[in-house]
Automatic annotation (TrEMBL), chains A, B:
<dbReference type="InterPro" id="IPR050287">
    <property type="entry name" value="MTA/SAH_deaminase"/>
</dbReference>
<dbReference type="InterPro" id="IPR011059">
    <property type="entry name" value="Metal-dep_hydrolase_composite"/>
</dbReference>
<protein>
    <submittedName>
        <fullName>Amidohydrolase</fullName>
    </submittedName>
</protein>
<keyword id="KW-0479">Metal-binding</keyword>
<feature type="domain" description="Amidohydrolase-related">
    <location>
        <begin position="51"/>
        <end position="392"/>
    </location>
</feature>
<dbReference type="GO" id="GO:0019239">
    <property type="term" value="F:deaminase activity"/>
</dbReference>
<keyword id="KW-0862">Zinc</keyword>
<dbReference type="InterPro" id="IPR032466">
    <property type="entry name" value="Metal_Hydrolase"/>
</dbReference>
<dbReference type="InterPro" id="IPR006680">
    <property type="entry name" value="Amidohydro-rel"/>
</dbReference>
<dbReference type="GO" id="GO:0046872">
    <property type="term" value="F:metal ion binding"/>
</dbReference>
<keyword id="KW-0378">Hydrolase</keyword>
<dbReference type="Pfam" id="PF01979">
    <property type="entry name" value="Amidohydro_1"/>
</dbReference>
<dbReference type="GO" id="GO:0016814">
    <property type="term" value="F:hydrolase activity, acting on carbon-nitrogen (but not peptide) bonds, in cyclic amidines"/>
</dbReference>
């Protein structure tokens, strides 16, 4: 029989409620519980907690956690070519496992239970995700300058065999970017994704250099490039989207594709800022991501959510992107793209949620809990994190965290000594 | 005899050290300790901690903590006139004490030991600051539309009598803004500040509406207005400075005045963003503030520091405002303006500091501790806070926090019921 959990006296939608979780789903949220619902259930005292949807991180490179703070305060080209790529070339599969552990720990601690990962040695990351109890859309990543033809073919085989997919892990076709995967290869990957029923995720319109080179090489913007190849539809999501033209926004909105904005990374690397107010006006589907730990330098979706809400108001009006809408960009909008019925506290949805400590000083007073959560709090207000009906953090403790930090420190020391 | 504290094995400047505090000062930081230094000292095991300067918040309205989340997602004029000012008019001195307690608790929890406060019922706030062990520059605030002539005269008397100044509290002359204090009254306050040796602090060039009205009324920018009245010098600091012209920046830099930037509030209220990259280039003295809890919506200087660092890179280049310089804007730059020898971990400086938990997942790995502290961490990495040689938070606990939160909740409930 499915495990039952009752979140007792939890604050949701303006009132204290008892919420029933059966197995991995919210069974009763606003409907009153009956006596039978409590029978055999684990009762969790939530009288000091509010419930919030857990975060869905739409774009990251998890194992880059090992390179947090390794190179800062420089522009994207120099940062990638002189620091990140040469160091990444030294990463072994074991290192990737260590880095993924650190990243997933950091994500759980800041309330994230799902991430879209574009990186290498995906099997290690998939194993860590399974082990630590969260979800991921794991990229099978393609980049011509960084891969042998054999490695490319192996990736294609991997996708054709649907290797390693599970209840909590899905695979995604990920051409790295227009400047690393050419027209012909991009077309092949679009066909593959379509035939095998995969989503596509890529870096898009991140810097002005990318736009300029794309215009020179293909005579169109990156968005037009993808449209021309037939890749722009509701199965397509792109990270960054920092330099969309008005026409790009219109094309993108009409296609039903999802843009994953990463404002902290974009500002830190001087790439620009996404025109979020215009994007909202044009009806684009928008989600949020943190990008990797070496360009942000954290995986904190609460911080990203506040940042995009502030930028939206700066670029639009003070009324643009109210707190509750910013929260959706960090939760259900990302889940929805990946076909996951989650990111909301609602009956029938997957039981992914956070218990927020109402005794945290930044949640007091509480005129509007969404305002407090988006604008005032930070991740330290998260007491517990649930994914798929199971607690992955309780009382701010995650199993195995000491070992994960020890391994990460040792690995980083080896990496710089190499 | 002065109390001695040894911070044992604390990480500072690339190495583990023993740091000696005698009374309220750092006595030995990089010099090796001798046996006699440990005698009679409280030894604090810091083997998992790094030391960082505590934050100095250059601009806030502490007791507005009671209005956190009370009104969001609207522009400054509507927000002030329809929501904030009518509600503030109901605040009693007792309410101000409750709100100041909540604000100081929030500040300590996020590593701040000093704040510049512009508000009403200053005696209550001064008492709370004394009681909770931190520092403040407390405004004697002037705003013609909100004050009777008697209240104005009482403020002037208060300043002439230097009432309530102490080791940790100084008074500051605070005309609210150009649009609330006219030319004649501003000139009088400049003279008073000069005669009685006070600093001046005001809101300046916050919105385009302010600039436009100032141009119409006085035929000059707000910066030129202050220059014309002779108020612009090293004893002058201004909050916001969102809409400085190139000429304003030059005038301001030459005057030796300090600009206190509040980027989160400016974005949230759609006021604009301070041109921090140009300001740095023009050699302006820059500090940071959070503004009040109802326009930010928190008092977290770590968050403000990351935000200004990101904006600086967005507006300048990826090299603009490296982590260590951003930290200075949130610490010693503010202290320096107020003539306080603090905001740095250095011999002879006031012992105001933070112990940062190196086992916090966002401090791992640690290639560059300033990068981790500015870009990756959040306030949850602060284990302990010291002000003036005394711990005001240890192991994340602040004395009396439960009562402060209870009182704040009750007060907020009364406020909305009025």
């Amino acid at each position: 029989m499915d495990k039952k959990i009752v979140l007792k006296n939890v604050f949701f939608d303006g009132a204290k409620r008892d919420i029933l979780i059966v197995g991995n789903l919210f069974e009763k949220v606003t409907r009153p519980l009956e006596l039978a619902d409590y029978e055999g259930a684990e009762i969790v005292d939530c009288s000091h907690f509010a419930i919030m949807p857990a975060f869905y991180n739409g774009h990251t490179h998890a194992a880059m956690s090992l390179l947090r703070g390794f190179a800062d305060d420089m522009e994207l080209g120099k940062w990638l070519n002189e620091y990140i790529w040469p160091t990444e070339a030294k990463l072994t599969p074991d290192d990737i496992a260590v880095g993924s552990h650190l990243a997933v720990l950091e994500m759980i601690k800041s309330g994230t239970v799902f991430f879209t990962d574009m990186y290498w040695h995906r099997e290690q990351t998939m194993r860590v995700v399974e082990e630590m109890g969260i979800r991921a859309a794991i990229g099978v990543t393609f980049a011509e300058p960084l891969m042998s033809p054999e490695a490319w073919a192996a990736n294609v085989d991997f996708l054709k065999n649907h290797t390693g997919e599970s209840e909590r892990v899905q695979l995604v076709v990920m051409p790295h970017a227009i400047y690393t995967v050419g027209e012909e290869k991009t077309a092949e990957l679009i066909e593959l994704a379509h035939a095998e029923n995969y989503k596509i995720h890529t870096h898009l319109s991140e810097t002005m250099t990318e736009i300029k080179n794309c215009m020179e090489q293909f005579g169109c913007t990156p968005v037009e490039f993808w449209k021309r190849l037939g890749g722009l539809n509701s199965n397509f999501s792109a990270a960054h989207c920092t330099h969309f033209t008005a026409s790009d926004r219109k094309i993108f909105a009409e296609s039903g594709a999802t843009a994953i904005l990463n404002p902290c990374s974009n500002m830190k690397l001087n790439s620009g800022i996404p025109q979020v107010a215009e994007m909202l006006k044009d009806g684009m589907k928008l989600g949020l991501g943190t990008d990797g730990d070496s360009s942000n330098n954290n995986l904190d979706m609460q911080e990203e959510m506040k940042t995009i809400a502030l930028l939206a108001k700066y670029l639009g009006t003070a009324e643009t992107l109210p707190a509750e809408e910013a929260l959706k960009m960090a939760t259900c909008n990302v889940a929805q793209f990946f076909g996951i019925n989650a990111g909301r506290i609602a009956e029938g949805c997957l039981a992914d949620c956070l218990l927020i400590d109402l005794n945290n000083e930044r949640m007091v007073p509480c005129y509007n809990i969404y305002s407090n959560w988006v604008y005032s709090a930070n991740s330290s207000a998260i007491d517990s994190v649930m994914c798929n009906g199971k607690f992955v953090m309780r009382g701010r403790h995650v199993d195995g965290e000491e070992e994960i930090l020890r391994d990460a420190r040792e690995c980083a020391a080896r990496l710089v000594a190499k």
